[in-house]
Write a structure and sequence with these properties.
By secondary structure, this protein is an alpha+beta fold. The protein is built from nine helices and twelve strands.
């Protein structure tokens, strides 16, 4: 912590800032060697239903898919994104993503490329081993329950060590939690932190209810063609075989809004520009890598603030 009146200084040391610059350069060299085009899309985006308000984006995904639909070919972007209420050792509301899309790539092929980039960035701190494991098998291994079939009461019971809401709040309905709420809690607080110990672990085949913008697996519609990469218990990347059906995407947006209404939250306007672009989206896969977290592991930092010039608290 800096002394009172001293928080004008950056939280990252000059050496950390030099390491940050070197890793950004290494990432660009990685993509240049593979002939991806670097693109630059807006940080400030429109409400698609009105001239105002404007928003800071949480991901460049929608804009990059519009470029893909317009014939850009393989592209990548290194950019700042903003997600509110995320602060902590691994979180800052504003952070850097490396996001890229590959036309005609299978998901396993993209997994290989993500791992190659992470190993390039981690350098000598990269673990020697690699692991591929399904979401279902990760839960079975770490918690002894099947996330695709276990009742909500079993999910709530598995979360009991987290002591949410006190000793009595262990029922599936006691905290107003949905099934996916329980699964995301268990993955974030128990399963995920156990992954990637001495290995780069890729978790694939997430539940269909967590598909977001990914396709469902035609061999097993209970799961989505989605993966995440973990190292040392930290989630670094999230990738999809991208959904190219505007009708299905519209239905998912509508379901999300219905859930928001049930929770008393404001609904989100549908992004009609994205939906229009999906009619022309080529078959592609895409992934986003958290650069700051990767840099933390590469240089042995213990907090994200050590690799940011000015975290939000002193911005």
């Amino acid at each position: 912590m800096s002394a009172p009146g001293d928080d004008w200084r950056p939280s990252a040391s000059p050496e950390r800032l030099r390491q940050r610059a070197a890793l950004l350069q290494r990432a660009r060299e990685f993509f240049a060697a593979r002939a991806l085009t670097e693109v630059d899309t807006p940080l400030v985006v429109n409400d698609p239903a009105a001239a105002a308000p404007l928003y800071l984006h949480t991901s460049p995904e929608y804009a990059m898919k519009r470029l893909l639909a317009a014939g850009s070919g393989d592209i990548y972007q290194i950019c700042h994104v903003v997600r509110g209420f995320e602060c902590g050792r691994l979180h800052n509301p504003e952070f850097t993503l490396i996001e890229w899309y590959r036309v005609g790539f299978s998901l396993p092929r993209l997994m290989e490329e993500v791992e190659a980039l992470v190993r390039e960035l981690l350098g000598t701190n990269a673990p020697g081993a690699s692991e591929r494991i399904s979401y279902r098998d990760a839960f079975l291994r770490e918690l002894g329950l099947d996330p695709l079939s276990a009742p909500e009461t079993a999910l709530a019971q598995a979360a009991q060590p987290l002591a949410l809401g006190g000793a009595g709040a262990t029922s599936a309905t006691g905290l107003g939690m949905s099934r996916d709420d329980w699964l995301e809690l268990l993955m974030g607080a128990i399963v995920g932190p156990r992954l990637g110990s001495g290995t780069l672990t890729i978790v694939h085949s997430y539940p269909a209810s967590q598909a977001a913008l990914a396709r469902l697996d035609p061999a097993d519609p209970r799961v989505a063609q989605r993966f995440e990469l973990y190292c040392a218990g930290i989630e670094l990347a999230n990738g999809f075989h991208e959904l190219a059906s505007p009708a299905e995407q519209r239905a998912r947006f509508a379901a999300d809004n219905a859930q928001r209404r049930r929770l008393g939250l404001p609904v989100s306007q549908l992004d009609e520009r994205l939906l229009a672009a999906l009619t022309q989206l080529p078959d592609c896969t895409g992934v986003a890598l958290g650069f700051d977290r990767t840099l933390m592991l590469a240089v042995g930092a213990t907090s994200i603030e050590e690799v940011l010039a000015f975290p939000t608290a002193r911005a």
